[in-house]
Amino acid sequence: MAQPQKAAQSGKPKTAITPTREENFPEWYQSVIKAADMAENSPVRGCMTFKPYGYALWENIQRSMDSLIKDAGVQNAYFPLLIPVSYLSKEAEHVEGFAKECAIVTHHRLEKGPKGGLIPAPSAELEEPFVIRPTSETIIGEAMARWVQSYRDLPLKLNQWCNIMRWEMRTRMFLRTAEFLWQEGHNAFATADEAQDDALKMLEVYRSVYENDLAIATIPGEKTADERFPGADRTFTLELMMQDGKALQGCTSHNLGQNFSKSLNIKYQGEDGQEHFAHTTSWGFTSRSIGATIMTHADDDGMIMPPRVAPYQVTIIPVVRDEAGKAGVFDYCDTLRARLKTIGVRAHFDASDARAPDKMWASIKKGVPVRVEIGQREVDEGQLTMTRRDLGKDSKKTISVDEFIGTIPPLLDSMQADLLARSRTFTDSRIHDVRDLAAMRDFFVAETAGFARCEASLTAQPEFEKIRKDFSITPRCLPFADSGQKVLVGRSY
Known about the structure:
The chain is built from 14 helices and 25 strands. It is of the alpha+beta class. Helix 13 runs parallel beside helix 14. The N terminus is likely disordered.
């Protein structure tokens, strides 16, 4: 991962973000979000406000994923925010995991209370309360049950982009909030093989976004039986390793078998004239992916944005000594911005009244991939001075504008690849093989950063449960790379 810059005189880190990652990782994470102006806590307990820069990142992630989802033959739709409690009761096993997190709507009108404030009107109590969706299997399944009548109606592939409410008690921006943004896909098929293939196919969509767009190394695998999604036959996941060595579940894709179709009555008449229950899948990816991007790439000077999803890929900073030369420098900068736009590069010309050094540090903290500085000398010589955010001052150089225009697309691709390679190297170097549970205990006693990898059978032994409780660890997944024979164990978010 990127290392903080060193101060030559003191020998101590001189950083824009305090505390540093090493000093206090959770506080560092919050400080990066603030310094990059991505989000803030809202007046609503447990919820957050996406600021424009942070939401622009989500829009770029969403745009890329939405294209891949549609390429997989899935159609977007939208379903109600409010779900009748009776619907959730149809799938008790599934809902049990969300029951303590549900926000419930019980009244449809407010009135003045005895002390002048507003209270729910006693006469306006709903005949049946609604739950603000914690997930949508039940209400989408109800629609599927109406829309699927014949084998000709299958497969039915649906996705919705929406918000979710789960009443979290301990929150952290992007990672765990009461309300968050996500997409949830729900597909129905005639056969078990089709459903299994689909669950893996959608996991691959997620892997593409994480690795190709967010430059985050993933560990694809299957959840253990204890960690499986309630109501699923099989749950697949991408596990990610953050810079502090903790795991973050990047997404999940579930083969639900016929469990939900039986409880929600999703059935069809087959070619044989007989009635059959459909085989369904569900799959979801959330705005916690932004938290993953921060904890994977940011350094002690702020965010480092992967170029493919960066709100803007180049920041152009004018360096003006006096008002006399301002117009010429600004025109030069704006012309460069326009030229970059014609080749598909997202560029931001910072024409604000802030001082040039302040603009530079704002660009660094926001993690803009490439910073360009232009003063009168650059204007006179047809040049610009550029710096890569991931490499810092060692990459600073002055080149002609024409050379920059010709090299910026491959440079951004190179930076994207470098960030992924760095993430992969970091992840691989912190997966440690342990032979037995005694070695696993030693691993976590030593507070080693990373995952312990062991034979999957070890997690079925009674002693593992004690280690699990002692160190607050969980089995993360059975990696596909190990053919499901080994399991990764670690601390997680």
